[in-house]
Every structure is written in structure tokens, then in C-alpha cells.
Design a protein that fits this description.
The protein is of the alpha+beta class. Among the domains are: about 100 residues, Tetratricopeptide repeat domain (Serine Threonine Protein Phosphatase 5, Tetratricopeptide repeat, Alpha Horseshoe), CATH 1.25.40; about 40 residues, no CATH class; about 190 residues, q2cbj1_9rhob like domain (Jelly Rolls), CATH 2.60.120.620. About 55% of the residues lie in helices and about 10% in strands. The strands form two sheets. It has a six-stranded antiparallel sheet. It has a three-stranded antiparallel sheet with strand order 6-5-8, with no helix packed on it. Helix 7 packs antiparallel against helix 8. The two termini are about 20 Å apart.
Length: about 575
């Protein structure tokens, strides 16, 4: 049975076709129109109808594969791409679609092969070059990414911005003469002069300047948004950066001004979006304002803004994180609960929906919430064997310290008062990190076995197959540093491994420096942390990726260093 895309919205919103097309090319055109309108399920049916009447219609099968990737069905997309390659092994577009599907299915080696095949079939193919460079960068290979980008060129002005952003990311992570964050900033400044309306370029420059501790990191971004109030994407990006940089009040002032000037029925923005797109951008501004109020602890104002976003674009805001968070934080879990339950019937493994579901159940006093949040089973501690830890401790300290000396505080992640490595550790060749990754997989296999002993009690993604890491990084917290409560959307199982831990002794806080589980990002009445784990060197803590977790600040003079990863199973 072929899996199909299921509409999230009510089925009654879509009217059946009165005069369905008769020819495959007409079904193809209809599918493209549905896809452009965001109606993925109808688009898939139209593409399949075109292929039913003309199985060799390449354009329909390619569009179907691309649609399946975008909407979370990579395994089915791989099948469709393979059918294209059976017809023509040198079909560069099919190789690109296969690579995108492999990447979405967490198969980086296969994705790299497919993107390379696309470039072999069509040398200079910009989209394949971009995809390959992006993959290499995420795997921790910025030097290889730069070599690919040196041969790739954006096909049109609209794509130049994306290529410049990717190149800046790679330069920031790479080491050597003319490389590093300062060189990336120079590249971005030149690119912004040419594209002053690019929200992506401005936001990346602000992140890099924040990363190296520049006090006026937001000035250029704020000035750009002030000069272009009609550019709603730029305004939203600026507000998000200010919020992440603990400047939420300033962000609200900017958003209020832009919203007062916006007219959702007319074209807006430097790229002149359609009225529908303008309404969506307006809803995004309102959701960002809700996020700002949540950051300030004003749940009622956040709720009012999120509801205004729903009025502007119900499809956009109905399941938005901001609306659900605002309802929960304002003590209205009974409103959020039925919406989340209904959504989870269609998306049972979505980590944010699962976390919101458990939080809402706990908030309304439903015993099922605490039953699902069985933290004695879900959170497990694996201490590295003493002999192995003695052999790895010093080498890990040395290699990670060198990496952190080139890193700073990230703007848009959970770290407060510390640094996170710019380069992924997934493919680091350091013997100590290679052995550490092997220990992680050994512990994951043990964790997997205990959870599969009672499979009906596991939530949040498949545990079947061999474990593999999909992300790996290190964090160094200075005294007073901590992680805000957060969850992970990429993995099935996530972690914290402690490399160095200062003395944790604070008579005013029995949980100083500890890792807490169960408390959401924004406070919810009656819902707090249910379990605390005390860190110690050589200790690995494993838990489901959807589980809320964060740390308490610690005092002293010495930093705390960890390695963390997200993992999946195949």
C-alpha cells in the first residue's frame, strides 16, 4: 500500500472537483496549482492520477517525488526517484530528488552520493552543488563544502542570497588564512551592500557578531528593519534576533510599529508577495510578538497576539508553537488539549506536539500525563567505564578546549552564558572523539534494549534498527551559565555527556548545575520539573528527544564542558 499525504486541516474545507481533467498534462497542471496553494494531499492525488494515465510522464513523477520530500515522506520519494532513474540513469533532476529524499531520511552518505551523481550528470548544476555543500557543512566538513561552492554559481539573482549565506557559514566554520568568523563577516557586509533587503544575510551577520561578543551586534539589523518597515520578513527576522538576544521589549516596539503600518490586503515586502503571502507574513509578525511576550513572562499579552495571528491566517496559526505555548502558559490547557490530541492522531511522532500533549495533560490534572512522563524509565544514566574514562579524559579536554576557543555564545540556541562549537563533531577524526562516538552508540544500544522491552510504553519515534548520530556538538558553560528548557526536533533520543564538571555546592539551590526534566520552556501552572540528574565527569544521560529539559546555573570559577548528540535508529 502506497503511503499518501494526509491533510492536517478539516476535510470539509476542500470541495470535490466538478469537472476533473481527462488528460495527464492537465492533471499535472492541477497538481502544480494545488502544490503552490499548499494543498499537498490534493497535489499528490493529481500527480498520481497523471501517472495512472501516463506512467512515463517524467514531469509528474519528478514533481511527486519533490512533494513527498517536502511533506515528510522521504522513503516513498526515494521509490519515485528510483523509477525515474530506471528510465534514465543520467537524469540529474532525479538524482537531486533522490539526494534530498536520502537526506530527509537521515542517510547522509547516500545523499552525498546522489548529489555527486547529479553534478556528474549535469556539471555546474547549481541546486545540486548547493545541496551537496549544505550537507557537507552540516556533517562538519566546511573545507569540502567550500570546494563545492567554488564550482557552483547561483542561476539567478534570487538564489545568490542563499549561496552567500551558505558560503559565509562554511567560511565561519573553516580554519586557516582568510577563513573564520571575521572573514565570514566581511563577506556578509559586501553581500548586504548588494542586497540590502535580504533578511537572511542581515540575520546571519547579527548571529556572527553576537557570537564573538560584539556589544552592538544588533545595530545594523535594526537599522535595516527601520529603513524598510514594509519588508515584513526582515522585520520579523530582526525581532526574533532581538528576542533571542534578550531584547524582547525592543522587538515588541518594532513589531507594533510594523503591524500598525501593514495592510494585509496589499502587496508588501521587497519581493512583493501576493495578498495571501502578505497575510501569512502578518500572522508571522503576530506570532513573533507572542514569542516576545512569552519571553517576558506576559502570558496574557502573548495569548492576545497569538489569537490575532489566528484571525489573520487560521491555517498558519492553528497549530503554531506560539499559540499552544501561550494557551498553556495562560492556564488554558483545556483549550489546547483537544487541538493537540486531534493533531497527534495525524502526526503521532511530532516532538513538539507530543511535548505539548503531555504538558497539557499534566496541566489539567489528567493522570495520563504523569503516566506518559515515566522519567525513571525514559531518563537513563550511563557512566563510562573507569579505565576508558581515564584514557579519554585529558585528550577530550584538549581537543574540545581548542574548538571552544574559536566559538562564542550562540544567539538562537538554548545556551546562556557559554559557547557551542561551530563545527559538528559527527566526522571529527580526533581519536578521542571517534572513541567517544563509539561509546555513545554502545550506550544507545543498551538504552534501546531497555525501552523495547516494553514497546507499548515508548513514545516519540522508532527505536528499530541500528543507532546512528544525526548531530553532535559540544557546549562549554561559564560559571552562572545554563540551558533554558528546550527539546530537540531532529532526534529520537538525545543526550548530555559530561567532560568536566566544577564543584556543585550552593546552599541556596539544591539543584545547582543539575539537569532537570519535565518543565516546559515557558512556565505552565502546575507543571514543573519531575526529575533532576546530577552531572559528574564521564556520565552520559540519555532521554527521548521530545522531552523538555534544561539546566540550573552554577557558581564557582571553573567552566562546565559537555558533548551532546541527537540519535535515530535504522
Amino acid at each position: 500500500m502506497v503511503r499518501t499525504i494526509t491533510p492536517i486541516g478539516p476535510a470539509g474545507n476542500r470541495e470535490p472537483l466538478r469537472n476533473p481533467p481527462r488528460h495527464p498534462q492537465d492533471w499535472l497542471k492541477l497538481g502544480r496549482a494545488y502544490a503552490a496553494d499548499g494543498r499537498a494531499a490534493e497535489a499528490e492525488r493529481a500527480y498520481r492520477q497523471a501517472l495512472k494515465t501516463q506512467p512515463g510522464l517524467r514531469a509528474a513523477r519528478l514533481a511527486l517525488a519533490q512533494l513527498l520530500v517536502r511533506h515528510g515522506f522521504p522513503q516513498v520519494a526515494i521509490i519515485e526517484a528510483q523509477k525515474l532513474l530506471d528510465q534514465d540513469p543520467f537524469d540529474a533532476d532525479a538524482w537531486l530528488a533522490a539526494g534530498q529524499a536520502f537526506r530527509s531520511n537521515y542517510q547522509p552518505d547516500e545523499a552525498q552520493m546522489a548529489f555527486s551523481q547529479a553534478l556528474n550528470a549535469r556539471p555546474g548544476m547549481a541546486s545540486a552543488g548547493y545541496a551537496l555543500a549544505s550537507l557537507l557543512l552540516d556533517q562538519g566538513e566546511p573545507d569540502s563544502a567550500l570546494k563545492v561552492l567554488a564550482k557552483a554559481h547561483a542561476p539567478d539573482p534570487a538564489a545568490v542570497e542563499q549561496f552567500q549565506q551558505l558560503k559565509a557559514r562554511a567560511i565561519a566554520q573553516a580554519e586557516g588564512p582568510g577563513l573564520g568568523p571575521a572573514a565570514a563577516e566581511t563577506l556578509l557586509l559586501v553581500a548586504i551592500e548588494r542586497q540590502p533587503g535580504s533578511e537572511g544575510l542581515h540575520a546571519m551577520l547579527a548571529r556572527l557578531q553576537y557570537l564573538r561578543g560584539e556589544p552592538r551586534w544588533a545595530d545594523r539589523l535594526v537599522e535595516a528593519a527601520r529603513q524598510q518597515p514594509e519588508n515584513l520578513r526582515l522585520v520579523r527576522s530582526c525581532a526574533a534576533a532581538l528576542r533571542n538576544g534578550q531584547k524582547a521589549s525592543q522587538a515588541i516596539t518594532m513589531l507594533d510599529h510594523s503591524l500598525s503600518e501593514a495592510t494585509i490586503d496589499s502587496d508588501q515586502g521587497y519581493d512583493h508577495p501576493s495578498p495571501k503571502r502578505a497575510r501569512r507574513l502578518t500572522a508571522d509578525l503576530l506570532l513573533e510578538r507572542a514569542d516576545c511576550y512569552l519571553s517576558l513572562g506576559d502570558a496574557q499579552a502573548a495569548l492576545a497576539s497569538a489569537r490575532a495571528a489566528f484571525d489573520a491566517d487560521p491555517e498558519r496559526a492553528r497549530l503554531s508553537r506560539q499559540l499552544l505555548d501561550a494557551q498553556l502558559s495562560a492556564g488554558l490547557a483545556h483549550e489546547a488539549l483537544p487541538v493537540v490530541q486531534s493533531a497527534r492522531e495525524k502526526l503521532p511522532e511530532n516532538p513538539r506536539l507530543l511535548a505539548a500533549h503531555v504538558t497539557a495533560l499534566r496541566a489539567v490534572g489528567d493522570p495520563l500525563g504523569d503516566q506518559l512522563l515515566d522519567l525513571d524509565r525514559l531518563v537513563q544514566v550511563h557512566d563510562m567505564p573507569a579505565e576508558l574514562w581515564r584514557s579519554l579524559h585529558r585528550p577530550l579536554i584538549e581537543v574540545l578546549t581548542a574548538m571552544h576557543d574559536q566559538s562564542g555564545a550562540p544567539l538562537d540556541l538554548s545556551v546562556r552564558g557559554g559557547s557551542q562549537t561551530l563545527r559538528s563533531l559527527l566526522r571529527s577524526s580526533s581519536p578521542a572523539i571517534v572513541r567517544l562516538r563509539r561509546f555513545f552508540c554502545e550506550a544507545l544500544a543498551e538504552y534501546q534494549a531497555t525501552q523495547l522491552a516494553e514497546p507499548h510504553r515508548w513514545l516519540g519515534g522508532s527505536l528499530s534498527g541500528e543507532p546512528f548520530l544525526v548531530g553532535c556538538w559540544s557546549v562549554r558553560l561559564a560559571p552562572g551559565g545554563f540551558h533554558v528548557n528546550h527539546l530537540h526536533s531532529e532526534g529520537v533520543v538525545s543526550s548530555a555527556f559530561y567532560v568536566s564538571v566544577p564543584e556543585l555546592n550552593d546552599p541556596d539551590d539544591p539543584h545547582t548545575g543539575e539537569l532537570g526534566f519535565g518543565a516546559p520552556r515557558f512556565s505552565v501552572p502546575g507543571v514543573g520539573a519531575k526529575r533532576w540528574v546530577r552531572p559528574q565527569p564521564g556520565r552520559l544521560v540519555l532521554f527521548p528527544s521530545w522531552l523538555w529539559h534544561g539546566t540550573r546555573p552554577f557558581k564557582g570559577e571553573n567552566p562546565r564542558m559537555t558533548v551532546a548528540f541527537d540519535a535515530r535508529f535504522r
